[in-house]
Write a structure and sequence with these properties.
- With 385 residues, the protein is of the alpha+beta class.
- The chain contains seven helices and 18 strands.
- The strands form five sheets. It has a five-stranded mixed β-sheet with strand order 4-3-2-1-5, with helices on one face. Strands 10-9-8-6-12 form a five-stranded mixed β-sheet, with helices on one face. Strands 13-14-15-17 form a four-stranded mixed β-sheet, with helices on one face.
- β8 and β9 (158-166) form a beta hairpin.
- The two termini are 21 Å apart.
């Protein structure tokens, strides 16, 4: 087994618009909190496995393909590349080609000459409920599927790298924020970097479609963001120091192609409940506009997606491009698998099969009930693969 880690600063080199809110249209050139690509590279039996966590709203599939092609050509080895976005809404828009190419080139320039080192690796995994930062952001909807996870790697029983997972939208700031920031996950990772300078930490966003700080934050300020980051670092540190069994690291990779069937919603049938918050009423208008666009242009809808699974010892990480509701966590195996969203591309919200409301999130979801149930089946199958 071979391993290496890399942390790259991916701050934009020119003014670029941010991504994540409709009002983000003007280019920004101020970076308040640095943006990183945190990269874990593993090699076993002549194949390499690369996971890249970007402080970005999304991980475009074109970026995944470009990086994989360059690495395979340079390394001469079969290479799996998985790229995940932490989903900060205050990073440069990856749809801007110049920034996407900047990140692509930085990643490849760092990885192509990389020397991996031999190591006898073991791993551990722990997950526990954690709702201090995130809760359901829908007035009439609750969830018990919000968890903090830690998947850790050890050499000679000394922890050397950790993948840290949580499902809550990193949107403690508002859409008019005039600077780039990695939001509270980035703040938490930097605290852990400082606390454990000889270790590697990376943040992965889980199924957070219906989960955010909307009802947990007191204000939308940098101070509130930093408070959330402190709480997240505190919780991850607690998980990192729990006694856990260690398992040999054996790697594997699998994919499942899923057909997408659609059931378009007519926004003219929408009746806004009186108990909706003001924020929900405002954002609902964006959902109505998206729903109208889907009705007018059904030919733009996609008809397939790919779920991927990375096997690490007895554990599984299942990656999806969608903003899945937290209900999809019920298809994972507690203590054995975790669902990671905003990975290998980026697509719309997908409500859980039991959700029957009409909200900003669900109005963007065009998928049929049978497709949503198939997502649950696929996640369950990949958790056992």
């Amino acid at each position: 087994m071979k391993i290496q880690t890399v942390k790259l600063n991916i701050n934009p080199r020119e003014p670029i618009r941010a991504a994540g809110f409709a009002q983000q249209v003007q280019p920004l050139d101020t970076v308040r909190d640095p943006l990183y690509a945190r990269i874990l590279v593993l090699e076993q039996n002549g194949s390499r496995y690369v996971h890249i966590a970007l402080d970005s709203l999304q991980a475009p599939i074109t970026l995944v393909k470009d990086v994989r092609e360059r690495l395979e050509q340079a390394w001469g080895l079969p290479t799996v590349v998985i790229i995940s976005g932490t989903h900060t809404h205050f990073a440069p828009d990856m749809r801007v080609e110049s920034y996407r190419h900047q990140v692509r080139d930085q990643v490849c320039e760092a990885l192509i000459p990389l020397t991996l080192r031999e190591a006898e690796l073991t791993c551990s995994y722990v997950a526990e409920p954690f709702t201090r930062i995130g809760q359901s952001r829908i007035s009439h909807w609750t969830t018990d599927q919000i968890f903090a996870h830690a998947l850790c790697f050890y050499e000679n029983e000394k922890r050397i790298a950790s993948l840290l997972i949580y499902n809550c939208h990193p949107t403690s700031l508002n859409g008019d924020t005039p600077f780039f920031t990695s939001e509270y996950p980035g703040y938490a990772m930097r605290q852990l970097d400082a606390q454990y300078p000889d270790e590697f930490f990376s943040f992965l966003q889980s199924a957070a479609g219906d989960v955010s700080t909307r009802f947990t934050r007191k204000e939308q300020t940098p101070a509130q963001m930093e408070q959330f980051g402190f709480w997240m670092a505190e919780e991850f540190d607690r998980l990192l120091n729990k006694p856990v069994p260690l398992f040999p690291v054996e790697l594997g990779y699998s994919e499942r192609l899923v057909k997408l069937n659609h059931e378009l919603k007519d926004p003219s049938e929408l009746v806004i409940p009186e108990y909706y918050s003001e924020r929900e009423r405002i954002t609902l208008q964006y959902g109505i506009e998206r729903s109208r666009e889907n009705l007018a242009h059904p030919e733009k809808l996609r008809h397939q997606t790919t779920f991927t699974a990375l096997k690490i010892g007895p554990f599984r990480l299942i990656f999806s491009e969608f903003e899945l509701f937290s209900e999809y966590n019920t298809a994972t195996i507690p203590g054995r698998s975790a669902l990671i969203c905003y990975s290998q591309g980026y697509s719309h919200y997908v409500a859980g099969p039991s959700f029957d409301g009409m909200t900003y999130e669900s109005l963007q979801d065009t998928l049929s009930a049978d497709t949503r149930r198939e997502f649950l089946n696929v996640i369950q199958e990949l958790s056992q693969a």
